[in-house]
Design goal:
Layout lengths: L15 H11 L5 H8 L14 H19 L2 E2 L10 E2 L1 E3 L6 E3 H4 L3 H21 L7 H5 L3
Antiparallel strand pairs: 1-2, 3-4
Length: about 140
């Protein structure tokens, strides 16, 4: 039996099983646009996953854009071409916390430990997601 659940419980006020079935009904390959179009129908479970008040939705979208600005910003130190550049970025070390510059995180032992734990969790998730790719077996074996 295949069970369909939300990665973060309580984030969506919709039944994950029904939402998955509605998405799968669209076809073998789906686009976000197709999902949105199906969700416009108020009788679908997908409809519950979206904010339909345009004023609220536009503000939420701006917050997503603000997160993208923080996440995608890269600051590189200028160095000689043969040297590897340092990349400074922003990370969240606590779910309820804000983004912090990595330069600050590496100087604080407890924050660094949280970042390292998150990195390991993301690596394990990557391994689980792509475990079926035999080309990556050698890399995954280094994690054991």
């Amino acid at each position: 039996m295949i069970k369909k659940t939300w990665k973060m419980g309580g984030f969506f006020d919709a039944d994950a099983e029904k939402v998955a079935d509605e998405i799968l009904d669209i076809g073998e390959t789906v686009t976000p646009q197709q999902v949105l179009e199906k969700a416009r129908n108020e009788n679908t479970e997908l409809h519950k996953c979206f904010e339909w008040d345009d004023a609220i939705a536009s503000e939420k979208y701006r917050l997503i854009q603000a997160r993208d600005v923080i996440r995608f910003l890269v600051i590189e130190e200028e160095q000689e071409p043969e040297e590897r550049p340092k990349i400074k970025a922003f990370y969240v070390t606590e779910p309820s916390g804000g983004y912090k510059p990595v330069e600050l995180i590496v100087r604080q032992e407890d924050e660094y430990k949280k970042l390292l734990e998150r990195a390991w969790a993301e690596l394990r998730a990557f391994k689980a997601k792509y475990a079926m790719l035999t080309e990556l077996e050698e890399i995954f074996s280094l994690m054991d």
